[in-house]
Specification:
By secondary structure, this protein is mostly helical. The protein is built from 28 helices and 7 strands. This is DUF1631 domain-containing protein.
Amino acid sequence: MNKQSGIHYLREHREAGSSEPVPVEVTRIRDTVVAGLGDLLQGAFDAVDDSLFELANNARSNNEQNRYFEAMREIRIKRKGVERHFQNTVAQFFANPPHTVQLHEDTLGRQANADNLALVGNDDLEEQVALNAMITKAKAHFQGPLIQLQTRFSHVYDGASEESPVNPMAPEHLCSAFTEAIQALEIQIRERLILLKQFDRYVVSNLGMLLDEANRILVQAGVIPNFRYHGKTGTQHSSATESQESSESSAAHESQSSGDQGSNAVFEQIHQLLARQRANAGIPSRQYSSDIRVIGGNELVSLLAALPLNTQPDAQLNLSEGDPLTIDLLSVVQQILAQAQTNDGKKPALKEMDEDLINLVSMLFEFILDDYNLSAPVQVLISRLQIPILKVVIKDKSFFSKTAHPARKLLNALARAGIGWSNSDEKARDKLYEKIHSIVQRILSEFDGDITLFETLNEEFEEFLARENRKSSLVEQRTRESERGRIKSQKAQEMVDRVIKERIARYRLPEPVHNILINGWSRFMFLAYLRDDVEHRWQESVKVVDDLIWCLHPHQEDTERDQWVRVVPGLLKSLRAGLEEVSYNATKLDDTMSLLKHELAEAFRASSSMEVAEEPPAQEEPKDEAKSQAEPEDAVIAEFMAQVDSLEIGHWVEFRLVNGASFRCKLSAIIEEADCFVFVNRMGLKVIEKTRTDLAHEMRRGRMTRLEQGALIDRALDAVVGSLRSKTA
């Protein structure tokens, strides 16, 4: 591990490459920041090492494993140089700070230039996207401290101003320093993204303490001790009572405003697509007459409060009975409006945007009800939630844009948890089904417009899943270990049988020797193969067989006879020790060894060669016609082989049997040695194992389908947007 202290490094290179004197106020900050970043970077590299080792350990091929080990080796060798380069670059930022606004504008300009983007390779683009996301997240998360620090640094450095501020600790500068430092690493894009991810997790996400410390040092030095920030003007005022609170509240307000601005972005996009679709169909924009009162906002929410959550009260006892529930939401809402009374006597009508919102909810549930990936019982249960979700989105359109929206999180969690359901499952006795059923019932009976109900139910469901997953994970781990042990034992037995049969097939061995090898020594070889990773005795056990057969040959040459005299004592000792270890014929072991010594002595005295056994008939080569039939078959399943190779541990699939029944299971282990894919059910118990070729054939026949595990609402929104775009193209 490289544990070089950042302070130690900085003392050696404090003024390296810098002609400009660092302001006195900044020197202490530089020392603290470079040392702190050095420590954080060490944690990131340690995590990268662990991640690559785990990936190599779970690799599905030797090539993939070698790739990860090579990346580990490359990073370990060059890690110290990368750390030194990163710290040196950060130190230079304090000596010659780049102008933050200029750098940011340049970055935006590069991103906005479509011609430039077209020239960027896929790998570079993927890396740039990861960096942009990292920088954007850091700026949003540390907005208050960054604004204060930028203003104070701009006050300290000569040549900096409000129009051209500087901040050596800006996230874009630190990320730029790191990407420059890792250019020396000869690794592929996947390993590079792992490196960036851990840098984000261990360094960028922990900048807060360094930013706060830098602000504290500057305040102690008297640099704008009382700070107040107003929106985008960047003006500061001295106010002892409102300094910190004002800056934080202002930053929070700005962050909230930008969040609100983007919270409806997805719906706005869909609204525009629907408007374009109406225009293409020749439908004019809606005009309202004077006797129409447009209902929207809180007034519409109040009217919808009278809408019953459950349109089938008889189904409350068992909500998953029957087919999924289909509701024409727009018709239901229009019926409510038709019955509504307005104070001015005008006829109530929906806003065009609200009507689009209702249609969007209907389209989402159309996708959900057609989604093959959802198990049938869960699909039926979620279909009961159309009206509650409609009330949610009418009140809060951010449902479509915020992945962390309570109602959206709960729907995604219900769908994800129920992916392993099969129609053959016993619902009445299953705890997961009971929990999902009770959650849907509570929403239908308790939801009154307060979103906190979804938060409460989501927390309860996550706690329940955590308990259930712990149980199933333990069972799955035991299943996986048991299967690996069984496969390894099977392979060990096959290897032992093959080695012994190959060697004894060429000679007619004396009966006592034959019995020892087949019934005794083979058991020792079996154990040696299983323990070879630790004890490395497999080759020794094979050598004993070879030595025994060689010693049974009569030898006439003096050199061979001298070698025979040297080999036999050790051979007998090894045989006895191995047979004792496997408890072979323990009561008559001495007699067995005496017989073996007798056979060896006879062979030593004999003058003729050992009798050679009859050669086994050679196996006929497969006919060319068989080969020609196999080649087209390989070509047919080649496409499906690629799909099988894309399966990863944890992926869910559905198998369909010849009789029409089906069951769902999860890929739990890929045992390369035996070309074996092991699948388990929701409880972690093994349900089936298949070879790679078998799975490809199952896919070709349509008997196996890989299930999509992405978040339900995300997939539904993608499908709706894609459909609308194709219709308006």
